[in-house]
Each structure stands twice: as C-alpha cells, then as structure tokens.
C-alpha cells in the first residue's frame, strides 16, 4: 500500500497487520512514564487509534472522537490512542481536552507499536494514521491504514466494525 504525507510518498516500517491475525503484543509509555503493555488488555475488545501527533487538527479530532465513544462503551472495551508524542505533551493535551475515557500511550521510546503494526513512517519517525480493532480473543478484526496521513480515518466504518464485537 502506498502512503503519502502531505502528498509526498513515505515508507512504512514493519509488516502491516491484517484481519484474522493475532495482534502483536507491544510495550509503550503511559502518561505517567510507566510502562504500558498491550497484554494488560487481554480479554477486552481494543481499538488502537493511531495518530502522528495529537497536537495537530486531524489527530485532535480523532483522539476526542474516540474518547467520547469510549465513555459510552463500557469496561470490556478499551480505546487506546497511540502516537510518538512525548508523554508530557500527551498529558497536557488530555488535561486541556478532557480526555479521560481513552488510554493514551506514547511509542516514542522504542517505536515497538509502529514497527510491529507497520505504522512507523521511516522518514519522519512518526506514526501513520489508522485504526486497528482487536477482538476479545486477541485477533485483529478490522484494520485501516489511511492512504494520505493528513486525512481522517473512516469513523463510521470503525464504529460499525466495533459494534459487531460488543
């Protein structure tokens, strides 16, 4: 798949995940600088909302949208926003925007999520934009890699696929 950022072709590092595969386990960094381990979410339906930087307009919209949805979905669904923003910037953003229902993690340290899920943009060391939904058994049930990183994800399709699992 060809992905562009502002119209310029970029290279995604790692293998893009596919529906039906087991979701790779990964570690990232929580807002309080503690370790986040995706394994902690086993048994839940998980939506990974992947954004380049929460400080941009489209990323902000995506993060706020999924935070709002998270507040409606109950405890057996986890919404996780992943970016490479530093946890300090993420924490400030969450405080200003009232992000309380979604989990926000940083992939800045090892880019483990970006590499294992095929979202890391080699040229920029940012994550591409997309959605990955994982079912309760740890299988990927929906994936969207947005072809032009500055465009929005398909919110309606992601919610439709999520609701099939809950």
Automatic annotation (TrEMBL):
One of the Pfam families matching this protein, by short name: Redoxin
CDD domains: PRX_Atyp2cys
Keyword line: Antioxidant, Disulfide bond, Oxidoreductase, Peroxidase, Redox-active center
InterPro entries: Redoxin (IPR013740), Thioredoxin-like_sf (IPR036249), Thioredoxin_domain (IPR013766), TPX (IPR002065), Tpx_CS (IPR018219), Tpx_Peroxidase_subfamily (IPR050455)
EC supergroup of this enzyme: oxidoreductase
Native organism: Anaerosphaera multitolerans
The EC number(s) this enzyme carries: 1.11.1.-
Recorded superkingdom: Bacteria
Domain Thioredoxin: 17-166
Residue stretches spanning the membrane: none
MF terms (GO), sorted A to Z: thioredoxin peroxidase activity
Protein name: Thiol peroxidase
Signal peptide location: none
């Amino acid at each position: 798949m060809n992905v562009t950022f502002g119209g310029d072709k970029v290279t995604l590092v790692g293998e893009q995940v596919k529906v039906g595969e087991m979701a790779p386990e990964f570690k990232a960094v929580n807002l309080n600088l503690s370790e986040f381990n995706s394994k902690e979410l086993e048994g839940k339906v998980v939506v990974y909302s992947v954004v380049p930087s929460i400080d941009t307009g489209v990323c902000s919209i995506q993060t706020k949208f999924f935070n709002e949805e998270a507040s409606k979905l109950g405890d057996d669904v986890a919404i996780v926003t992943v970016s490479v923003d530093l946890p300090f910037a993420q924490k400030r953003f969450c405080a200003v925007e009232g992000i309380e229902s979604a989990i926000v993690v940083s992939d800045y340290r090892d880019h483990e999520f970006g590499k294992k899920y095929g979202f890391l943009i080699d040229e920029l060391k940012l994550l591409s934009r997309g959605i990955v939904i994982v079912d309760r058994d740890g299988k990927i049930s929906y994936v969207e890699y947005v072809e032009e990183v500055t465009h929005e994800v398909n919110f309606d399709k992601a919610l439709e696929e999520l609701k099939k699992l809950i």
